[in-house]
Each structure stands twice: as C-alpha cells, then as structure tokens.
UniProtKB/TrEMBL annotation:
Cross-referenced PROSITE patterns: FMN_HYDROXY_ACID_DH_1 (PS00557), FMN_HYDROXY_ACID_DH_2 (PS51349)
Keywords linked to the UniProt accession: Flavoprotein, FMN, Oxidoreductase
Organism per entry: Streptomyces werraensis
Official protein name in the record: Alpha-hydroxy acid oxidase
EC number: 1.-.-.-
Length: 375
C-alpha cells in the first residue's frame, strides 16, 4: 500500500469549523470592492470594531451539576417558531455575493428552521423569495412616496410574511469610506427588485469618490421619518411590528407605547453613526426599559454560539445574524448559508451544555460580568 505524502495530506480541503473560516473563504472569492461593501463600516469604523470588542468583554458564569444531557435551542420570535433564537438579518443586493442571491439565503434559512428577513432593497422580489417556503419577515425602509410604503406593506401581507421589521436608523446612509474610495456602484444586472425592477438607477452610476448606493438611498429614503409616521403605520397592518435600530431605552419605551411587538437593539453593524454604542452594551438597559412588554432582539457583531448565549444572558429574546450569512452565501450559496446556521447551532448547543443550561430560559438566568462589573 502506498503511503500518502505529507503534501497530499496537506492538500485535502479542511471543512469549516467556525464561521470565521467562511469569512476567510468569502474574502478570497469576492472582488475587493464587493468585499469592502459588505465588510466595511462607516467613518473610521470605530463602532464596527467596538461591537466585536464589547461582546468579548462579556464573561459568563456557568452553572455546574445541572444534570443536562441535551440542550433545547427552540425559540418563538415575534410569533414565529424557530429552531434557534436567530433570524437572518435583512441585507441588500445579495446577488452581489451569489447568482441565486436572496433565494439561496431563504433556502438556507428554511433548512436551518429560522426566519429570513427580506430587505426592501433585495435583489429578488418578495414574491419570488416567498416561493422558497421559508418563514419570512419583511424589512421596510421608509420611502419618500408613502404610496409605495403602503404598497410594500400590502405585498408583505399577501406574500405571507409573519412580521414587519421597520429600520429606523437610516435617515441618510452614513459615509462609508471604503465605498467612497472604491467609487462603489452596482453592476447593471443587480436590481432593487422590489422598487426598481425595470432599469438602471442612480445606484448603478459609478463616480470616483462617491458611493452610488448612498446617492440612490438619499433619493429614495425619507429622512423626515418620525414617530407620527410609525404610529400611522401601526394602524395600517395587523402584522407584528418590529422596530430595528434602537439603542436608547427612551426610544424603546416610545416604540412600545406605539404598539411595537419587538425592538432590535442595533447600530446597523457599525454602518451608520460611527461612535455609536455597541449593541451588546446597550442591550441590558433596553431590556429593563421595556419590562417584558415586547420582545427584545439584538444584532451587530454576532459571530458565534457563545455570542448568542452572551446576549441571552443579558436579556435578549433572540438575535439577528448578518455578515456571517453573507460569507456562507458567497462561498457555497444555499448550502453555505445553511452551514453557517448549522455551525451557530452546534456552538450554541455546546455553550448551553457547558453553562449548565437545558434551554433558552435557563440561559437568561446566567450571571454575567462586563469588563469586571456584575451584569
């Protein structure tokens, strides 16, 4: 029998064992400008970096002798049953990452048993994505044309979406320096399928030193969006209403007063106000402010099952996961998305067992310390 050489052994592909492995794969596959578009943050990327650092400062105190052999990760998020306390965050223009774009992401979410939040500026229509069969929520940006807002809400209802997620932290798109340096614009074959299905828009016009996507956003989005508009929206639909982009507990309280079913503690993954508070740091005060009157979700910086457990221990009901899903999508389409979510499930199950928790309710009773202070 011929022995395999060391070189042959080294050439054998190693399957990813954590989502960071897929990050490296995605970075190697994607064009530099596309990688910068999904990986970058705003300004000096202070908040982008702070999200990760803040999560790493959360230490958990595991329980022992709990007699737990298997951990239950099932959750109910805003009325939707989920195999994990996770939903796939809304992310724009996913065909930049893979030809199947949002359809592949929906397929991966379906395989993992978690909701997929469809972006207003998805690169497939809401109706096309709904045919995949995943549990869908629809993310709404506030447009200058209120008639278009109403139309999108009705389409979400008719497509069977189970919640409406309103992003409230993008009155304008922040300056994302990587995109400005790259003069980033969408290729001609990428569309905002729900808004501009028939031809090129400002988002396709490349100019040095300018982000065409930011120009398009400024044209389409209404910077005057305010609480009265949200109150009006609450009266337009019976869908559960999720308010995404909350960091101040006072805003969380106001959202509850206006009928929100959930808030998402989020700084938009470090892509809006640079210097904004990390989401995990803001989370406990928001949880305290709403006092159980609505669910509290979180996003920004989540990279592992341990991160999920950290957020649960600090009071979150669930989390939205963003960039890691895109890493999986760009690497292997629907299978890559499913792989990311499977890795997070494996890590969360292990973290729960090691912390002595049989389920998510037990996770919320764990003690935590943040930078040495009791949490």
């Amino acid at each position: 029998m011929t022995r395999r050489s060391a070189a042959a052994v080294d050439a054998t592909p190693t399957p990813p064992v954590c989502v960071q492995d897929l990050r490296r794969s995605a970075a190697a596959r994607l064009a530099p400008a596309v990688w910068d578009f999904i990986a970058g943050g705003s300004g000096a990327e202070t908040t982008l970096d702070a999200n990760r650092a803040a999560l790493d400062r959360v230490s958990l105190v595991p329980r022992v002798l709990a007699g737990v052999e298997k951990a239950d990760t099932a959750a109910r998020l805003v009325g939707t049953s989920a195999a994990l306390p996770l939903a796939v965050a809304p992310m724009a223009y996913q065909r930049l990452l893979h030809p199947d774009g949002d359809l592949a992401t929906a397929e991966g979410a379906l395989a993992a048993g978690v909701p997929f939040v469809v972006s207003t500026i998805s690169s497939h229509t809401l109706e096309e994505i709904a045919k995949v069969g995943a549990a869908l929520w629809f993310q709404l940006y506030w447009l200058r044309d209120r008639g278009r807002v109403t139309e999108l809400v009705r389409r979400a209802e008719e497509a069977g979406c189970q919640a409406l997620v309103v992003t409230v932290d993008v009155p304008i798109m922040a300056r994302r320096l990587r995109d400005l340096r790259n003069g980033f614009a969408l290729p001609s074959w990428i569309r905002s399928a729900n808004l501009e299905p028939d031809g090129p828009t400002a988002a396709h016009s490349r100019r040095p030193g300018e982000s065409a996507v930011a120009v398009h956003t400024k044209t389409a989005f209404d910077a005057t969006f305010g609480w009265p508009d949200l109150e009006w929206l609450r009266g337009q639909t019976r869908l559960p209403l999720v308010i995404k982009g909350v960091l101040d507990p006072r805003d969380a309280e106001q959202a509850v007063r206006l009928g929100a079913d959930a808030v998402v503690v989020s700084n938009h993954g470090g892509r809006q106000l640079d210097g904004a508070l990390p989401s995990i740091t803001a989370l406990p005060q928001v949880v305290e402010a709403v006092g159980g009157r609505c669910q509290v979700l979180m996003d920004s910086g989540v990279r592992s099952g341990t991160d999920v457990l950290r957020a649960l221990a600090l009071g979150a009901d669930g989390l939205l996961v963003g960039r890691p899903v895109l890493w999986g999508l760009s690497t292997a389409g629907a299978a890559g998305v499913a792989q990311v979510l499977s890795l997070l499930r494996t890590e969360l199950e292990e973290a729960l067992l090691l912390a002595g928790c049989a389920d998510l309710a037990a996770a919320r009773t764990l003690r935590s310390f943040v930078s040495g202070m009791p949490g």
